[in-house]
Write a structure and sequence with these properties.
With about 210 residues, the protein is an alpha/beta fold. The strands form 2 sheets. The protein has a 6-stranded parallel beta sheet, with helices on one face. Helix 8 links the parallel strand 6 and strand 7. Helix 1 crosses helix 4.
Length: about 210
């Protein structure tokens, strides 16, 4: 499969890396204190992992203002602590061996993403990176994907590419940008509550090679 594509794009959290549950639980405890609402383990898991699709829509269904939540959430996240509690999936190490342009398109905010890449020493895996914002758009919007493709120099010249991620938004972003999609299912269909379709559906990147 390595030779099927001219470039690769990848998501970060839940795809290449994950965070120890104790960190996630602690953050949601502190956010809950600020909002005056407790979050169960299941609710924290749903939001952290994006199990129900749109996190903002899920928050609204629970009667929580998304802007208020994310302000509290980002205030309570400690970039250095998060980086120390983040680990690399062993099967993700193939990215270092790719001989094609590689880009990162992540919803992880830059102030959190950069320390994680530094801590895991994987900065040099990527030839271009984009941390999505309101200005860039969010996956499944193709705009952030197209932006990274442009940075890689593969935006409009017929190159064949693939985007790999752990969420339905990653698959949607790939297809909306005219790319093939790899869905890597890290949490399992039962925990997610649905199956996510993709051009490739795997539990480990090892299955691709």
């Amino acid at each position: 499969m390595n030779g099927e594509y001219d470039f690769w794009l990848l998501d970060l959290d839940g795809t290449l890396v994950d965070v120890e549950w104790s960190y996630t639980r602690d953050v949601f405890d502190r956010v809950g204190d600020r909002l005056g609402r407790e979050f169960t383990d299941q609710e924290a898991d749903i939001i952290w992992s994006g199990l129900s699709g749109s996190r903002d829509r899920q928050l609204e269904e629970w009667g929580i203002d998304p802007q208020e939540f994310w302000t509290a959430f980002h205030d309570e996240e400690d970039p250095l602590v998060r980086a120390e509690q983040t680990y690399l999936h062993e099967d993700a190490e193939f990215v270092a061996e790719l001989e094609f342009p590689v880009g990162l398109v992540t919803h992880c905010q830059e102030f959190l993403c950069e320390p994680v890449l530094d801590h895991l020493d994987i900065h040099d895996w990527f030839d271009a990176r984009l941390c999505c914002t309101e200005q860039t758009g969010w996956k499944p919007d193709p705009d952030p994907v197209q932006s990274v493709m442009d940075d890689l120099g593969v935006g409009h010249n017929g190159h064949r590419g693939v985007l790999a991620g752990d969420g339905a938004c990653d698959v949607g972003a790939a297809w909306n940008a005219g790319l093939d999609a790899i869905h890597v299912e890290r949490v399992g269909h039962e925990r997610r509550g649905q199956c996510v379709l993709g051009d490739y559906r795997v539990q480990s990147f090892d299955e691709l090679f």
